[in-house]
Specification:
The protein is of the alpha/beta class. Helices cover 45% and strands 13% of the residues.
Amino acid sequence: MRLRALVVLAVGILPGALHTEPLESSLLVLTSYPDELVARFEAAFERANPGTDLRVLWKTGREAMPILRSADQGGVDVYWTPALRNFPLLRDEGRLRPLDIASPELDRKALPGRIGGQTLSDPSGRFEAFEVAGYGIVVNPAYLADRGLPTPRRWADLADPALAGHVAFPVPSRVGFAPVLVDIILQAEGWAAGWTLLQRIAAGAELADRGPGVGDSVSSGRRGAGPTIDFQALNAQADGKPVDILYPERTAWLPAHIGVTAAAPHPKAAAAFVTFALSEEGQRILFHPDIRRHPVRPAVYRDAPAGTGNPFAAAGAFAYETERGSRREPAVAALFDALITRRQDELRDLLALLDEARRAAARTGDPALAAKAEEALALATAVPVTEVEAAGLAVTPALDQDWAERIGKARAAAADTARAVLAAAKEP
């Protein structure tokens, strides 16, 4: 099996032609991918392996974990899905078997398992990246041009006062891709500065509480820009919507993964499917106009449709740490709600007051007064938990209530300080 897999991955030969022993007659794949993607891989795999019937069990990432943690893992052979947190957990619990294709002999020039400095695949070889999605800013060029608004190209550009009221932002506790998006900004900007920037952006934004919300808002012309996962913008483009997707320099390409379960009842067929999904033939399927995803095999981009972004060519110095983000995902989502979602009107009014105080202090030329205005801003955007504390934090109702009280007190103090600055600035 190892020799066959290595040859397939190195030269892209059709997997079905290289079996030295017959595969089992069926295999069960657990996934959350949509039918337009799954059906094409299913048909192509069965053509290459006519004696094997590929069966599919559709479950969300949350629904999948009880099944994969059961004694027989529900009879599942292959887990194949975009669920960043699940794969490391299953690996650490011993519920994924080593992949032959992730062996030390694998030619990582063909399937590198990373983009720039960002790791995509499991270094221990228990799961492999299958495709990546980029995080960027979807813009409606006509909307922005008609209103004389700047085009945001960096995360910080979304906080431009000129764009207040023209941005849509996804709520991470409600939108599946949003926790990672928020964490990308936090890792790119730093914990404290990142939360300040997020509050600046989201205070005046339309908060989207469903997956397509940002893309729908921008493509319909209700808003001009918003951070999103790129395949939603690419699908909108394919439907003729007037949008572009822009990738900030400090962004990330997040992988979906594939792995074979430890209890797989059909291990040969499972390994063959993983090999096919990562082969050149399998990876090219991702370019289909009904799918429009980014392969993890750099060589296939030579066959990409015009206009397809190549993450391997665009990779910068910023290296997003996937597992670091996964460990604090629940805390990040809860903090966003505590700081922004439930207090958006309060936050918007407070930031307006603080900006007025900062401008007034600057006009006086008094450095002490300017420092006091900055102190008020720091109070207003303070986060009630440190970056270290957020990792693996279980957010309970009691903790959430404690955060609410601390945020309320800090913002009240910030407002008092801002008013004091304004009063002092008016004194002769």
